[in-house]
# Entry
Amino acid sequence: MDAQMILEIRPDLRRFLRQFDDCFGRSNTRRYLPVYIQGQLSNLPRKSLEPMADAAGIPSRNLQEFLSLFSWDQNRMRGHLQQYLARRHSHPDSVGVIDETSFVKKGDQTACVQRQYCGAVGKKENCVVSVHLGYATPDFFTLIDGELYLPQDTWNQDRDRCRKAGIPDTVIFRTKPQIALEQLERATANGLRFAWLTFDEFYGRSGPFLRALDQRGQNYVAEVPVDTRFWTRCPDLLYQERRGNRSPGRQKRYPRLKVKNNPPVEVRHILTYSPRLRKQAWKTYHVKDGRKGPMVWRAKHLMVWPADENGLPTRPHHLVIAQNLAEPAEVKYFVSNAPESTPVEALLRVAFTRWTIERAFEDTKTELGMDHFEVRQYRSIQRHLLLTCVSHVFLSEFCQKHRGGKSPLDRLPGSNGGGKSGSIVDCGPALFPEVRPGDQRQVGRHPAAKRQGRAIPQTQDESKSTCDRYLAQRINPMSLWSCIAL
# Structure
């Protein structure tokens, strides 16, 4: 990092934060915003309120009151942030990533704390959990929203405890998928558009969540648990009662499944028992270059039929079964409501985009101090999560701007079969063929969407191709305080 770059940081940060001026009614409140953001971007070993205040030469109580007592509109700030991203980073291949993270806390006074599974330590621990929405494009990713999860038994049913922790009576228990839906609605209301959504099996097991996305016309690629059931052939339905078969008793509902139908099958058994899938050859995909070397998976694909809320089959969905070649015991099952002609490599690209939010959690916790907060009140934690999103957006843009000549995320092979054939995926460096924009495959919009996208070109017979699919994603790791010295 040269001297010119250092001189650019402060003016860039001032210009970036100027968009939030109208979120504050008073100038003496607004002046603490750059103090907080600069503290998160600094090289302080601990980025809690006291070290950041000491570094800025102000009393720590001032920053504490900035989070807890001072009047400023955090909802307006989140709206401005998301509108800013919609203006500057809209992309036809954008992916929204939903995930949660946790923060270990001692005692029982911190808002929403309880003993529950904590992903930060990989076991049950006393912690708070927050649900987040990330935004990723081929050359950019960031966190755009975060909200605390309010446990039902220990908090929602004890409103006196909630009031002591500053939790408003309007904040009630919502499942994590419900929180994620609200975050999605806020982002779309602020102008962000997601070509895709992706999330792990915790959200993929929620039928109401998937149906809500389907009703919104939102394409998704969801990882699902191994016990998720689908029909591998569309079952037959009865739409009316046959004449002469009327019998007294409870009236039967129509349409309903015929008695002579194959039952739905768990996805972990489909690979073994489905004749169509057994006959299908594995196809190998180079997902990306990880820290330990190239990540290579092989996959099979099948159209399946999930059940709706009435137990009847919906329209066909994609099922992609992916196996890690380095660790064959690791098998993932992905389901997508995308149009039937969507290529498998596009589904895998979206599914493995989930690494961006995992990387964002790592960056925000280790470099921005997202897990360093020592406040207990609900509003203080909520504001801290939002300010961390603001810091992360600025940091992501800074890294994108000063990445140098390094290439952004690579594209998928074109529909004309561009790429080298017969190469061995696990030998030599990962080579990704150059693809002109006109050659790239386009994924159509969800059938329920109001505006229909361009039709997807017919793909060639992939069973005749020996070309390895390369889905390399090469966003450079963020060099945070080492290249940002405020």
